[in-house]
Input
Amino acid sequence: MSSTVLVLESNQWLGDQYQQALESQGFTVARTDDPHVAMDMIDDNPPSAIIMNLLLNGAGGVGLLHELQSYVDTATIPVIVCTAQSSLSMEDLESYGVKKLMNNTTMKPDDLAAAVRSVLA
Output
């Protein structure tokens, strides 16, 4: 059985790249660019991991991270943040349940699947 990864990315091209890279490695991918829709998707079918950019519509990525941490059943879902914001550090994000921080301007397609495997191990 493959692991499901929820991808939250407002940039359509990046989202396509993430989806293609993950599916080529055997992962099932669910996608949205809306934090509210993401929460509904997570409630209906909790993913094994979440890959997200923090720059999202509405409440944004930080709002979604707060929401995930406020529920026992979603607080344990590993989150990988992919962003170009170089000012962020893991220290800033660990309390939000983020397990990995990746720079989406320098990572390679295989890096994403390797990161998901590492947070699921």
Summary: Helices lie at 12-23, 35-44, 60-69, 90-93, 109-120.
